[in-house]
């Protein structure tokens, strides 16, 4: 596995122009260009510029407002698998109570950070087209950038898009779709309306297909063909296109040693694409999960989450640690804060094959794949014999396997079971997160809020 410290290497990637990405985000601009930035007047002219720019694209994904903490944590808070027990009761706390408002600062920050990440990818794609150096790996660079952009739009749709019933339904709501960079304050920063869910889905598929065609197999801290295939399978499963999900998942090469690896969710044989942090490029997971010294104990496992584990499940000790109580062994490094975050795992591929096979009538394949995960977790083979029962077991395994990785809320949404699993969530409009009120207000009526907020 290739390990890269993105913050140390991305010396020209933190684009100053990203300040003007979102609606109204350019009310003020600081007329200073940091030494680790490159302005739109300078641009990328060499393969080294593009390489640093690509690292900057990854670095944006590692922000504490994104996959350095906030995005997966918000998803698991609202799904009930994380309980907010600290002081952020007006941000994370209300998310965990499903009472999020359009001015929730964490929701606002995460929305903005994802669009900053998109803008970095857009800028790299634009600038890399003009680099003519024959030594520049243009197609692979653009393949990674487009896969990252697809990943970001998948996440935007996951929280803010679709319908109350889920994803892929007629009339599904999308998000503002920006496929060109913000180069200057002016026309580039004008508000745009939301695209439909279908339009955003088309862009996601095009980006992932380009990545699949131009990247090589492998695993590590960079997106590979394996990761792009797995993301395409994730997206099709979410959109309820089960035959396509099965097709893409089956193309992901099997990972040697996966079936016998420890069921921790952090081991290398399971990680297809893993965000790698360091002492100088830290995430906030252990800090939020662990008490002082070294942490602030904002999060505990959700009420009843331990009881969801079957007897003998090896994942229980990982997901609900007892020393100290209320923690997890997925994120433990309070001093260095360099726990990796798994963006794509092979366990997800296995369970996608299982679920898509069950939903398309191949119960033999579904059972075989499901039992790989059950056996690894120390459980006996499934006793389910019908498609519905097998899918129910698969969804439980997904919940336990991907604890604190931000998956369950999207499983509840895509299966239209939010209100069944969480019966106190009676306001179905809250199945979609609210778009930040600042963007709505500054758009002059062009950007429309999700219904009933």
TrEMBL record:
Residues 1-25 form the signal peptide. Residues 98-237 form the SusD-like N-terminal domain. The keyword Cell inner membrane does not apply. Residues 327-453 form the RagB/SusD domain. Pfam families: SusD-like_3, SusD_RagB. The keyword Signal applies. One of its GO terms (cellular component) is cell outer membrane. Keywords: Cell outer membrane, Membrane, Signal. Coiled coil: none annotated. It is found in: Cell outer membrane. Belongs to the SusD family. This is RagB/SusD family nutrient uptake outer membrane protein. It comes from Hymenobacter nivis.
